[in-house]
Amino acid sequence: MDANLDALAVGGMALSAVVLVTGTANMVIMASLWVLYHSLVSVGQLWYSFGWESQLLETGFLSIFLCPLWTLSQVPPRCPPSLISIWTFRWLIVRIMLGATQPVPNPMSYYMHFSPWWFHRFETISNHLVELVFPFFTFLGRRMCVVNGAVQVLFQAVLITSGNLSFLNWLTIVPSLACFDDAALGFLFSSKSGAKKAVLEIQKEEAAGRTLKPSKGMFIRRVVNVSLAVLIGYLSVPVVMNLFSSKQVMNTSFDPLRIVNTYGAFGSITKERTEVIFQGTLSGDPKDPEALWEEYQFLCKPGDVQRRPCFISPYHYRLDWLMWFAAFQTYEQSEWVIHIAGRLLSNDSSVLSLIDYNPFQGRDTPRWVRGEHFRYRFTPPGSSSAAEGKWWLRKRIGAYFPAVDLEGLRGYFQSRSWPHPHLKPGSRT
Prior knowledge:
6 strands, 4-stranded antiparallel sheet, two-stranded antiparallel ribbon, 9% strand, alpha+beta, 2 domains, 16 helices
């Protein structure tokens, strides 16, 4: 299974590299990329349950129809992107913003958090305008559409700077670009650029009334474009009905291929940050008050109060994100947390590769692992804690899950058909 998943990922990276290096793509390449990623999402279960997985799939599907069937050309003269394809992207950005609402903060998040009150009010007003008003500029003519595109790109740039939202904001910029046209984006390209010269030549021919001689291929392409419009329109019906529903659901697909979806990243959010901290001990008795509990540290999520928030976007630390979701649920609702604990008890290398610090590296494996629940908040600037180098203040809420050992987890794992972790010979003295 791991080899097959690796093969899918490597294949996708190779095709993506072709597009990136050459600046060209065709329907075959884009369709292949869409199928490969759809395969990963379909088998990824919880690890691929984030809303932007569907957004990436929808963006990828629409991108297929921007490209010629076979030709690899930066500006294919006989097959320019159709207006229908452009509008499907505009419809996508409208839905994303109407559905949208900081799981893993970055260093800038700290300073944004302690901004003056008037700045937070400005943020709130701006957020509502960008997400609820500007999307409708898309339907008010070229100039207003370009204004919306510029606002959305700027908004995503601010979010990239102030938060670690995986590749979500980078991905959202893609449909925003459909709000621009050649005239609006021409200044970005050198007049010596071959692509720009080709575009200008096509524009001159269109202005002079010279058009390409109709061909069978062009007719087929028009049929495909119209079919795309009909398909997107049909699949948008439940999405629009959901948008106006009093029981609106977010981040949902109404078709198995995830072609048209509802969005709403962080449609509901908690007022406080809570974190689950894994701890292990070598003590034989977890109830011993003298037992030394040592903490595991994840790659980016808050743990050690003196560790500065990190930059990860556009990368996606999936385990860190899932731990954030688990923190405002119970371990009974997030059973995979206990699965992680079992793998830590056996010093499983595949799980340890997903975290930053294993306190038992090069030592005996822990006899017990537990989950502690803490409430975190940023250290106020100028405070004594900040002077000590602390980025966070935390307060224990209680136990998230009780201390567990390998033998005690045997029945738990068996009841869920999970393979029971085993200690390697010599891993414990």
